[in-house]
């Protein structure tokens, strides 16, 4: 039996969660004894300088005897984060604030007779480089 056939035989049930540059794979697999376990794989895409890309993968094996404890702690941790920080992704909020600021600056600079204030600029000397 080839490795591919063995892999096909092992995988019982799978789900995929795509999250930007990350993809999560949830796979139910079978042990040699015929019992089931769960693998969670995070795959993250990285781009090289030459434009080519590669993936880095991290895998967790979760066995039935650990399901209850794992589920309880996962629920506790995710609830804590949502209660403390809400459901909004902070980096998205910063991105929106940056976009609003950029649009405001662009709108002001496009108005006739309006000049940009130089108070927010920093005088930089390149003599030290």
From TrEMBL:
Keyword DNA-binding on entry: yes
Region spans: Disordered: 91-129
Ranges of Basic and acidic residues composition bias in the record: 91-110
Bias-annotated ranges (Polar residues): 111-123
Keyword Metal-binding: no
Keywords, sorted A to Z: DNA-binding
Ranges that cross the membrane: none
Entry's Gene Ontology molecular function annotations: purine-rich negative regulatory element binding; RNA polymerase II transcription regulatory region sequence-specific DNA binding
Cited InterPro entries: PUR-bd_fam
UniProt similarity note: Belongs to the PUR DNA-binding protein family.
Protein name (database record): DUF3276 family protein
Organism in which the protein naturally occurs: Aquimarina algiphila
Lineage of the organism: Bacteria, Pseudomonadati, Bacteroidota, Flavobacteriia, Flavobacteriales
């Amino acid at each position: 039996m080839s490795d591919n056939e063995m892999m096909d035989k092992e995988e019982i049930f799978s789900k995929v969660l795509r999250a930007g540059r990350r993809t999560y794979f949830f796979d139910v697999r079978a042990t040699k004894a015929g019992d089931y376990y769960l693998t969670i794989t995070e795959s993250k895409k990285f781009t090289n300088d030459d434009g080519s890309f590669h993936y880095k993968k991290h895998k967790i094996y979760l066995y039935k005897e650990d399901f209850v404890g794992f589920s309880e702690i996962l629920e506790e941790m995710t609830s804590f984060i949502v209660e403390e920080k809400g459901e909004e992704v902070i980096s998205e909020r910063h991105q929106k604030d940056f976009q609003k600021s950029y649009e405001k600056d662009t709108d002001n600079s496009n108005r006739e007779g309006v000049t940009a204030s130089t108070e927010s600029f920093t005088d930089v000397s390149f003599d030290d480089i």
